[in-house]
């Protein structure tokens, strides 16, 4: 492991931006492209929004933890909540599946997270919470030029 | 995030978004845009994303929700000048055919002259 960070905050929607900024700053040491950066930013945003809206059902007293590690050119980020958990993970990962259409949730969160990451793992226990982990390889700038 | 709503006389509503659009921010803009749609007779809703630095799937919910409101009047939607990452998000969500790269002026001119250009 080359570097790591942990960020803990209350499940309030205004903290979504904080989580994104923390992870993007952490990634900056890898010299990512703007696209790699904005893709990781999107994954973090989706996972943190899920924790707040679904995990804690908008109860602002919940705690969300974002943990990031860097191994060489690879970054791994874990977003954890201790909320209600996901009943059926497979179903939740289906494109367009949402339990909250009335809140205009598009049901695209997991599809976007899967598409933008190299690897995505979702672990969840009903009543105990959900842990989303993704990894992404950041291409060295030299390989992009040649 | 900041936003700007401009209504053109011939039923075109242009929404300019600035900064970052996430779940927190969509809640704030939704009512304003919905109100403009319900008050006017909007036939074309243009989301100018040129100055938007970030958007997640909350943006998809926002756009799809307004498309639903526009369905009653057969209104069209254009997603103008999104970033590469946003373009991918729109594609995954089946909104890829709403994306266009042009200036607002071009879009307005085309909609006045030839509606075929906008209708899919």
Question: What order do the helices and strands come in, and which of them pair?
Answer:
The complex is a heterodimer of chains A (146) and B (120).
Chain A: E1 3-10, H1 16-27, H2 34-55, E2 63-71, E3 74-81, H3 89-93, H4 109-116, E4 119-125, E5 129-137, H5 141-145
Antiparallel strand pairs in A: 1-2, 2-3, 3-5, 4-5
Chain B: E1 2-8, E2 12-21, H1 23-39, E3 44-48, E4 52-55, H2 57-71, E5 76-80, H3 84-92, E6 99-100, H4 104-113
Parallel strand pairs in B: 2-3, 2-4, 3-5, 5-6
Antiparallel strand pairs in B: 1-2
Helix pairs in contact in B: 1-2
Protein architecture, described:
- The complex is a heterodimer of chains A (146) and B (120).
- In chain A, 36% of the residues lie in helices and 28% in strands.
- Chain A is of the alpha+beta class.
- Chain A is globular, with a radius of gyration of 15 Å.
- Chain B is of the alpha/beta class and 120 residues long.
- In chain B, strands 1, 2, 3, 4, 5 and 6 form a 6-stranded mixed beta sheet that branches.
- Chain B has helices at 23-39, 57-71, 84-92, 104-113, and strands at 2-8, 12-21, 44-48, 52-55, 76-80, 99-100.
- Chain B starts with a strand and ends in a 7-residue tail after the last helix.
- The A-B interface holds A 13-14, 16-17, 20, 35, 38-39, 41-42, 45-46, 49, 52-53, 95, 103-106, 108-109, 111-112, 115-116 and B 20, 22-24, 26-27, 30, 54-58, 60-62, 64-65, 83-85, 88-89, 92-93.
